[in-house]
Amino acid sequence: MKQLLLVGMTLICLLYASLEGKGQADPLGDAIEKDAESGESVRDYSQLVEELTELSRHPLSLNRSGIEEIGAIPFLSETQKNALQRYLLAYGEVFSIYELAAVPGFDSTLIRKIAPYISIGAVPKNPPPTPRNLLKRGRHDLLIRYGRLFPAAQAYTADDSLLNTNPEKYYPGSPDRLFFRYTYHYYDKVQIGLAGEKDPGEQFFTGAQKAGMDCYSGYLSVSNMGILSRFVIGNFRISFGQGLTASTGVVLGSTPGFSSASVAKGIKPGTSTNEGDYLRGIGLSLKFKPVTGSLFISYHPRDATVLAVDSASQEPAGISAFVNGGYHRTPREISKKNAIHELVYGGNVDYTLHPDLHTGIRFGVTCIGWHYDAALQPSPEPYRLFTFSGNDNFVAGIDVELRRRYLHCFAELSRSNNGALAWLAGVNFMPDPGFNILVKARNYSPHYQNLFSNAFGQNSVNANEKGIYCAISVTLLPKLTLTGYLDLFSFPWLRYRVDAPGGGQEFGMMATLQATRDMILQLRYYQKNSERNLPVESEARVHQKGGLMSGDLRFDLVWDPFPTLRCQSRFEWKHAGEQGVLPQHGFLVYQQFRLQPVRWPLTFTGRFTLFDTRGYDSRIYVFEPEVLYGYSVPAYDGKGLTVCAVVKGRIGRFADVWVRGGWIWYSDRTVIGSGIDQTAGNTRFELTCQVLISI
């Protein structure tokens, strides 16, 4: 049966390739899949997905955008952003999106990629934010989401005897996931947001969650009023320079093609319910051209594992690690909730000068400090020797950018309180509209300590790493683009599961063909060679280091045969393994359809996926169709198939409704999950319902 399905779906791909049908692959999904697979753990991409989704719902107007606004357009390299800005300054208003083909470095594939995030045409002047206008002209959005897995895990079905003898194996709350978010926008002047989330297993208006939701976040933001660039009170994030000194955003790692998505720079409000990596307090940015100054201060509790308690005050005196999962279900998880308080403060001064259309200079100084009311005391493993410990730290850095025609140079140097340095420098050069090259070099000392650094690199933290990264994009034909990258890196000190200094390399290639007006074909391959400890023999005391290789080949086809129908096919094959061990192999194939009838306020997206992987190292991450503002990037390992469907409808003038169902079946197991999250049987169903009311 599996072989028949695979052959059938392959024939569908071949049939598409022989037909003439406008298509575009999902660049955000591709970038998140690659980043999730490369990282040591799957990160929280909710802020990135939320920001780009909001930008797609309310696109950026090119005809009223300045330098900072253009910088927020995703999937553009720095030279492409500079070229777009020069074009707008030289020729003025843009009347059609097809006009962007005249911008150096822009082709039809890139224009389709950024099209959801930009708008063309005249934009009326915003009315002043008077009380009357704020009440009548503001935009209100209320989003409510419900989700649940079936069947429920064994932690929800424990009997009373287990609850009394071992409460750690029981979830007292319901298996429902609840989420709400309210936002108010008055053009680009005033924003208000409030969000709350209850995770599965947490209680609701009882137990440890007497306030209802387990997590709340909110903000009030005022911006673009004279010299006031931004004022935020509540939840916010920061990103300055290259992110080496201070950044709480998301930076996606190396991908075939080097212009991926990242959050915009500066101080930005947000309603992300990530309970670990967030700031809550006050942020202020003032703009006195050509200087912009920013200050921020954050103070809030954080979850942590407590090591010691002060005998006099009974307050935590030491912690071993922060806990970022955000779950508060069992007594042990609840005991870690709000264990300590975190104070974060800092600022940035940015000087920007544009002598002419072809030249730009930017210079910035950033500092950030933090304090915990309990000392951080990491576990004493050798690879943690240089990890930050204690209560306080302070980091300062400088960054510079230089633009001259089609050359863009950038660099950042940062110093932590212990005197250790880290730096990142690079150049982006586009000598011809069809040729673009990016080179980045980095050197992060093993002694460098910064918990709020989020710059480019292979490690999960910006420390103990040296490397050079090179990426090239070439347009060979008007409809054929080749991109490739090579990242050479080394680690001067030990790492998790690697008991010696070492290094590796990663490279990838991608070919994108605009076969017809309505069809895109994409072929991608990447390989990463790194190191990992080999299994210890019975009489050995030290791990031996061995090679670890992972390679991935993917074919994507996106075709719009009709204005109301989009089809996407994918075949992916992966091989991975340790040195001297037979490599694991795996494959995944899916077929997706998106139907949007013209006369009905209804959109249907369906996907069928078949996967067969021989181990965890050969797992394959897939970005799945989701409800608005939601994201899901599961790792498929084992053998099985999944069916996923999302239906969106409109009710009346103000309400949109989504219903998503996801069903998975495994042929190689009789239980799914592990521990108390285990469910009996080899199938699982996930239901998500969401409503968005916009007024």
Task: Report on this structure.
The protein has a domain at 62-119. It has nine helices and 33 strands. The chain is globular. The protein is mainly beta and 695 residues long. It is 12% helix and 48% strand. The strands form four sheets. It has a 24-stranded antiparallel barrel. The chain has a two-stranded parallel ribbon with strand order 1-2. It has a two-stranded antiparallel sheet with strand order 27-28. The two termini are 50 Å apart.
Give the overall shape, derived from the CA principal axes.
globular
| Rg (CA only) | 26 Å
Largest sheet: 24 strands, antiparallel, barrel
Tally of individual helices? 9
Look at the helices and sheets and give the structural class: mainly beta
The share of residues in helices is 10-25%
What's the arrangement of secondary structure elements?
Elements: H1 2-17, H2 27-38, H3 46-57, E1 60-61, H4 67-70, H5 78-91, H6 108-114, E2 118-119, H7 131-137, E3 139-150, H8 160-165, E4 177-186, E5 190-198, E6 215-225, E7 228-239, E8 266-269, E9 279-288, E10 291-302, E11 304-309, E12 316-322, H9 331-335, E13 340-356, E14 359-376, E15 390-404, E16 407-415, E17 421-432, E18 435-444, E19 465-477, E20 480-491, E21 502-516, E22 519-533, E23 545-562, E24 565-578, E25 584-595, E26 602-613, E27 620-621, E28 635-636, E29 639-651, E30 655-666, E31 671-672, E32 679-680, E33 683-694
